[in-house]
# Entry
Amino acid sequence: MKTLRARHLTSGAMIGLTYLAAVLATLPLILILWHLLKKGATSVSLAFFTNMPKPVGEAGGGMANAIVGTLTLIGIACMIGLPIGVGAGIYLAEKRITPIAHTVRFLSDVLNGLPSIVMGIFAWEFLVRPAGHFSALAGGAALGAMMIPLVTRTTEEMLRVVPVSLREAALALGYPRWRTSISVVLRTALAGIATGALVAVARVAGETAPLLFTAFGNQFWSTSLRQPIAALPLQIFTYAISPYDEWHAQAWAGALVLISIVLVISLAARFVTRSRFGAPVD
Amino acid sequence: MTAVPADVLQKDRRRLRVHGAEIGDRIYEIVTTGCALVVPALVIAIAIAIFAAAWPAFAKLGLSIVTSSDWDVANGHFGAAPALFGTLVSSAVALIIATPLAIGVAIFLSEFSPTWLRQPIGFLVDLLAAVPSVVYGLWGIFVLVPMLREYVMPFLRDRLHLGATPFFSGPAYGPSMLAAGVVLAIMALPYISAVSREVLMAVPRSQREAALALGATRWEMIRDAVVPYAKSGIVGGIMLGLGRALGETMAVTMVIGNRPEISASLFAPGYTMASLIANEFSEATNDLHLSALMAVGAILFIITLIVNAVARWLVWQVSRGRVS
# Structure
């Protein structure tokens, strides 16, 4: 039997270790942001956003095509992922305990954890292989499919927060169920659903693996949805594994821009929810 | 006699309205059900797509895909054992590093953190999950790998004399299984800690108070009363992190060295299934090569599917008792 003193010492030491864990766990993010700022900030200028990539050996140049490409891909992904995800979320919130709801809920969680490269293979098999060439559309579809389970689950959670009394009030006033759902329940939860959409966008914006063999990347300007298109993460990857210093500098700049986009979206998402749901709803 | 037609009229109108509402409700239900069914359809479609594409390789090569370590495209040998080995080892290294940190941070946040620190630290750790993997890869190539090569690897091998074991021996190239493990640890950390924090917070207050009332120190309270209560949820969180680590592609491809050989040393370069696919997919020329890559994808798909399903089930076990 240990003495009380020894037990308290152990206790103090272990609690100290959890403090240490907290410090160590926050360290990587701070280090990564610090290095991105240090190595990327010098190459980010207006030209970075408006110019095209320069050939090897020339300093400068920008990633205009990749930035536009990423925005295009996100646009396609949203058109696929948002309506389906919100629809499925509504279903889950309204039919909580049917067997289908349980299955869908479980499978969307499982889908959420699937490696993104598997999604890329899937889009390649269905959209690239039959067409015979890489395309922006296939890349957007892969990202859109990744968004579906994320949007589904957050929509469901947000709809569940809406008080039942609101729904009952609308029904009592003679609203049909579908109108109650759309103009009362959905509208009340809109900010939360927007948050979910933002989180999903932030996640797919930085995805690279599913784009490797769908959007493929493009060194030139292209806005055609049927052609390969450039994307910021792909460009960063290509530049990072190249042996050229100029390209490394561009990769750091690209990464700084990419992470800024992702962080701004994540912060916006957090801010929207807090201002809306910060106070207890019911 | 004027009252009757008015009555009939009103009845008709009501019936009309009810009828209209019914049609609207039916359409609404069909649309939302359709959307919901997209999710299972997607899972099935993914499974069919991958297995259909992988079938020729499975039929021709059989089990040698996972047992052979001879990956020679020119001669038609496709043994992905090194990639399978690399996936498992890099993920294991990641979990060994990430699990204590993640649980430590979760315990700190749920039990000891001052209130004003709870939000910012939780947020910073959560943000790790939002960093794109290609950014981790870039940071890994230019910051982490040189750091491991110059300081950490020599320290482990020579100062701690771990070079005597096969796991930390050999020259320190930089790109290595260890580098992949460290990057994956950082990437898995937020998933494990988020789930752990949630389940720890779900442990009833009375559980803690009872332990303290029996004379436990604060650490004994956590070890004997809080953690056992949340155990299966924490294990679920670890499995979720494992799922992430197993399937992670870009960051690993950039730091692991991409050499299809099995080595006991963590200092040696390796390969993973995901990075094998990422590297060779768009360059695959003949059908068997492509199909073999798909077969590797199919194996990865099955492994992550099982890991994720078990993880979700474990987390649900805990959270279901609390929510509904």
Observations:
- Chain B has one domain: 64-323.
- The mean pLDDT of chain B is 88.
- The beta strands of chain B are 71-72, 77-78.
